[in-house]
Each structure stands twice: as C-alpha cells, then as structure tokens.
Design a protein that fits this description.
Layout (H helix, E strand, L loop, with lengths): L2 E5 L2 H13 L4 E5 L12 E5 L7 H17 L4 E5 L12 H12 L4 E4 L7 E4 L2 E4 L2 E2 L18 H8 L4 E4 L1 H5 L2 H13 L4 E4 L4 H10 L5 E4 L28 E6 L4 H12 L4 E3 L2 H5 L4 H10 L7 E4 L4 H11 L1 H21 L2 E7 L1 H10 L4 E9 L2 E5 L11 E5 L8 H4 L6
Parallel strand pairs: 1-3, 1-4, 2-3, 4-11, 5-10, 5-11, 9-10, 12-14, 12-15, 13-14, 15-18
Antiparallel strand pairs: 2-16, 6-7, 7-8, 16-17, 17-18
Length: 420
C-alpha cells in the first residue's frame, strides 16, 4: 500500500478514492476501520469514517485507530481527507484530529489544502472561494451543523489548533514544487508546523503533489490526490476503474438538503420520473413511511430509475429541526432512508445512488457494506463503486455516494448511463 487515507465522511471518502483512481491507482474503500489486511493489489486504501460532526474526542479516537491500522499495514504516506468547504466548527474536528495524527506519526509539518478547482473550490491568499464568491457567501453559511462564516482558512485552522498555522501562497505554488519545498523548510524553521496552501487551478494540485512526496501526513480535500500517484511511479490507466457489469433495478435515495441536491431532485421530477417524498414530521407522528415507500416502489421498479427523497429547502429543514431538535431530526431521517435503501436492495435494486454524506453513511451501514472497489467517475468527485459480496445484494451492488454539493443538475438521470 502506497497511500493510506482517512476520510471524515463517507461521500468524501469516495470523492478522494475517485481522484486516486483517475490518476491510475487501484483503490479499495472500507466502511469503518478494517479488521483484515488490505487486498494485495490495492495501491491505496481509503478508510471512510463518520467523524466530521461528532464530538472532537471521539473523532480523534477513531482517526487514531484508523491511522494505526494504515501504518501497521505498510502505508508510506497518510492522507486525512476533509471537505472541500472545510466543514467544521471552532472546536474541530479538523484541527484536533490533525494534531493527534501528527503526534502519532511524528510529523513535524503538515500542509493543509481543501481546494478542488475542478469543482470550483479554490484558495487564494488563504481565503476559500466557492465558485466566484467567498465561502462565507455560499450556501455553506446556512449549513445546519457546520455553518461556515469565516472564509480565511488560516484563521479557521488556527482557532482549532495549538500549533502555529501559516500560509503557502499562490505565488510560491506557481513558482513550482521546489519553491513549495523551500517555503515548507522556512516555515518549519520558524516554528510553524501547519500551513494552508493556495490552489487556483488543477496544475497547482500537481505541483503540490510533487512537493508533498516526502511529507508523512497531509490534510486535504480530494483535489490534492490528483498529484500524488505520480510520486509512486503510477500513471493514469483505464484498467484501474473497471468494475463488474451492472445488474438489477435502479434507484436514488437523497437526504442531502444542499442547493445542488435540491436542483437534482427538481430536474429528475421535471423529466417525469417517479419520486416519493419523505417528510420526517409524519414519521415522528407514527406514520410508517418506510413501509409505504417500499410498497409504492414495488410496482415502479423496472427499467427506469426511481427517487426517494427527504431533500428540502433550508427553511423547511429549520422548521423540522425546531420541532424535533437538530440531532433527532437528522437521526430520524437517516433511519428512514437507510431502511428504505435496504428494502429496495431486497426488492432487486442493484444500482443505487445515495445523495448526502450523513445519508450515505447510514445507508452503507444498513446494507452491511464493509468495503468497495472504486470505479468510473460520474461527475467530478463522484464515482460508481462495487461492493463485491459484502452486502445483501446477491452479486454485489453498484453504489454511488454523492456529496450533497456535487454533481450537475441532471446527475440523477445521467449516473446510470455511465454503467450502461
């Protein structure tokens, strides 16, 4: 294993794995910390955790356990994958997990770069932009769990860390990997042990990939992964993304309430496909939405995909949270959607798209998925995966775990064409 990765949510894990596959690596993603050694042909292992929004102490403990497994199984470099919008609070969990991994690995300097220009996440002078606007002006300012109001990542990271946080700016990156290495040495000598790294293009990611060849630990979104396989003599290959032939019915389960997911639901419905809306408040009053949905699906599963969604506009989400509580509303929705996903697979669904990080985590656990092979990309950051035999599906399940903000408006319809 060349590269060992720890992701703080499930869709982020597949996002990272997707970029590694695009660059030629054979990648296995595990759901939770593995109990067995990795496959002999895996160039990289991505351990998908659900630590982004849990209490910092628990996030640190799980991440350390994952890091120890990776190191024990020969990982030459460790990659802590965080969201491209740096989702976190002033308490963590990015900073606390990073510093704990630094202590565990003996790392004396860590670059931090959540940028992914291909998905319109760029960093300039330490400020994170989403599209043409600052992070604080994006839809992330209204995120129900981790609202992001400060676009300056040096400040955000410093509030979470005991170590000094610096900056490797765009001028240094544009000067090449040698200049980045020199800047790292200067920062380290001055007592700075972490640094936000600017990136405004994919070429910047390739430059920093070369510069990070000797770094023990790095913290990044999925973008930096594009530049790492070259350090191990690996080049892009179509064979790295090959999966078994697709089988079974097609379905989508969407719990994300992001702007992108709302557009994707609206586009799917506007094209005349069948859909079923989940309203958590009705379930809280005792209505069996799982049973009702699965009964609805029986006569509709066939050649065309169907959609089950709890996706809603931010105001509707806030109203539900005000009645049920933020945590209770989220847990109820995840339970309903994951139970439906398991029921759909039992009814013959073999191609399943899941939208939303929390929803994806709940669904793969309900399906009993413990690991996945990473396949072809649907949209930047979202690949198809195959579970093999470690799920309830008789011949394995093709599944795509989509981060809420990723994908074009027609994602739900075009995804299945990638497997055709």
């Amino acid at each position: 294993m060349y590269l060992g990765c720890i992701a703080d949510d499930f869709t982020g894990a597949t996002d990272l794995a997707n970029n590694l596959v695009r660059s030629g690596m054979r990648v296995v993603q595990t759901i939770g910390i593995p109990t067995e050694p990795p496959p002999a042909d895996a160039d990289a292992v991505v351990i998908a955790l659900k630590t982004r929004t849990i209490v910092p102490d628990a996030a640190v403990a799980e991440s350390l356990q994952a890091g120890r497994w990776l190191r024990a199984n020969g990982a030459r470099q460790v990659y802590f994958k965080v969201c491209s919008t740096f989702d976190s609070t002033d308490e963590g969990n990015i900073g606390p997990v990073t510093e704990a991994l630094m202590d565990e690995l003996g790392a004396n300097f860590v670059p931090v770069c959540p940028a992914f220009p291909e998905n319109q996440r760029t960093i300039f002078n330490g400020y994170l932009f989403v599209g043409n606007g600052l992070l604080s002006e994006s839809s992330m300012r209204n995120h129900p769990l981790t609202p992001m109001h400060d676009p300056n990542l040096v400040r955000v990271m410093q509030r979470q860390c005991k170590r000094q946080v610096g900056l490797i700016d765009h001028r240094t990156v544009h000067a090449g990997s040698g200049a980045v290495k020199e800047r790292i040495d200067l920062l380290r000598q001055s007592g700075t042990e972490l640094a936000i790294v600017d990136a405004t293009s994919d070429e910047d990611l390739l430059i920093m990939g070369r510069a990070f060849a000797g770094v023990q630990l790095l913290v990044a979104g999925s973008g930096v992964a594009l530049g790492l396989p070259q350090n191990f003599g690996i080049a892009p290959s179509s064979q790295s993304s090959q999966l078994p032939a697709a089988r079974g019915h097609k379905a989508i389960v969407s719990g994300s309430c992001s702007v992108a997911s709302n557009e994707q639901v609206a586009t799917f419905k506007a094209r005349g496909y069948a859909s079923f809306a989940i309203h958590p408040l009705r379930a809280a009053k005792g209505e069996d939405l799982v049973g009702a949905c699965l009964e609805w699906a029986k006569s509709r599963l066939g050649n065309e995909p169907i959609l089950i969604y709890a996706t809603a506009e931010p105001q509707a989400v806030k109203e539900t949270q005000a009645i049920l509580g933020v945590q209770a509303a989220g847990e109820l929705t995840e339970h309903i959607l994951s139970s439906i996903a398991a029921g759909l697979v039992a009814q013959g669904v073999g191609q399943l798209v899941v939208a939303g990080g929390e929803t994806s985590g709940a669904c793969v656990k309900a399906l009993g998925v413990t690991s996945m092979r990473i396949g072809p990309q649907i949209d930047p950051g979202v690949p198809w995966c195959h579970t093999g035999e470690n799920t309830a599906a008789p011949q394995g399940l093709h599944i795509a775990l989509k981060s809420g903000n990723f994908g074009t408006s027609d994602f739900f319809t075009k995804a299945f064409g990638v497997l055709a």
